[in-house]
Amino acid sequence: MIADRTLSLILPAHNEEENLEIVVRAALAALPESFVDYEIVIVNDGSRDGTAAVADRLAEEDHHVRVVHHAQNRGYGAALQSGFGAGRGELLMFMDADRQFDPRDIARLAPHVQGYDIVAGYRIARNDPAHRKFIGSSFNLVVRILFGIKVTDIDCGFKIFQADLLRDMELQSPGALINTEIHAKANRRGASLIEVGVNHYPRVSGQQSGGSIPVMARALRELVLLRWRLRSYAPPARHAVAPGSVPALTELRSVSAQPGAADK
After folding, report:
1. Are 100 and 156 in contact (CB under 8 A)?
2. Rounded to whole angstroms, how far apart are CA atoms 25 and 31?
3. Are the C-beta atoms of 35 and 5 separated by less than 8 Å?
4. Is the pLDDT of residue 33 over 50?
5. pLDDT for 106-163, tens place per residue?
6. 39: left (phi over 0), alpha (psi -120 to 50) or beta
7. Are 108 and 183 in contact (CB under 8 A)?
8. 3-class SS at 255?
9. Cα dihedral 58→198→111→258 (10° resolution)
10. Rounded distance, CA 140 to CA 72, Å?
C-alpha cells in the first residue's frame, strides 16, 4: 500500500564515501513503493573524504536528491536539524547512511504514518560490537529514568515523524542527544507513537564513532544541559498536554517485524 503523503528522507553523512551511494540508490528504489512523492536530503556534515563529491553527483543525477553541506563537522544532531529544516515533505524521516539499515524496511513503517505522530524503528537484533550494545542499553535505562521516555531503542536511526511536530520544536542538541530531546519534547506534547521492528546489519565500511570517549563525554555534557533546559520547556499551545492527562506517547504500541524481503 502506498501512503498518500510526501516524505523527506534525511541522511546525515560524515565520512561515508564508501556507503553513501549504495544507501541512496537503495532508498531511491524503495521509496516509490511506499509514498506518492519523496525526496532524499543528504546532509554532508563536514566530511573529510569524498562524501561531498558523491552527494553532489547523486543530486545531479536524480532530481529527488538534494544536498546540504556543513563546512565543518557540527555533529549528528546538528546534521539532523539542518535536514529537518531543508525537508519539504509532509513527513520527515531520518536514516543513518552507514548501510546498517536497509531502506526496504521503510515499507514496514509506512503503513502506520496515517495514525501516529511518530513511527519509531527499533533494532530487532543489534549488530554492533558488545561494548556498543552495553553502552546503548545503559543509555536507554538512563533516559527512561531521567526523562520518562519509554521506547525500546531510543537511538535507533530509523524513524518517521509528522513534519509539523518537528518543525516548531526548536531542537538544540548538536550531538547524540538529539533523539532524546525529540522524544522528551514529543512526550510533553502528547504525541502518539508506535514502534516497529527493523533489521540491523554490521558496518562493513567506514569508522564508527558513537562509542568513542570524546563522543560519550559530549553526550554526558549534553545530557545534563538537556535535563536543565527541559525544566522550563513549554510546548506550543496547540501541542500542550492538558494538566492531569496522560501523554499519548506513553501509550506505546510495538510491532515486531517478521522476516521479509530485507532478510533475504
Report:
1. no
2. 10
3. yes
4. yes
5. 999 999 999 999 999 999 988 877 887 888 788 878 888 888 898 999 999 999 999 9
6. beta
7. no
8. strand
9. 130
10. 29
Grid coordinates 544541559 are at which residue? 225
DSSP code string of 81-132: HHHHHH--SSEEEEE-SSSSS-GGGHHHHGGGTTT-SEEEEEESS--S-HHH
Q: What is the DSSP code (8-state) at residue 241?
A: P
Please count the other Cβ atoms lying within 10 Å of the Cβ belonging to residue 213.
Answer: 7
Please identify which residue in the block is written with the cell numbers 546532509: 43
Q: Cell triple for residue 165?
A: 511536530
Residue in the block written with cell 573529510: 48
Q: Which three cell numbers stand for residue 99?
A: 548501510
Cα distance between residue 170 and residue 168, in whole Å: 6
Q: Quick one: average pLDDT of 224-239?
A: 78
- Angle between the 213-230 and 178-189 helix axes, to the nearest 10 degrees? 20
Query: pTM (2 decimals)?
Result: 0.85
Q: CB–CB of 108/23 below 8 Å?
A: no
Rounded to an integer, the average pLDDT of 200-205 is 90
By DSSP bridging, strand 3-13 and strand 35-45 are parallel
Task: Kindly state the cell numbers that stand for 158.
Answer: 530509523
Measured between its terminal Cα atoms, the distance across the chain in Å is 21
- What are the beta bridge partners of residue 194? 119, 253
Q: Does 259 have pLDDT greater than 50?
A: no
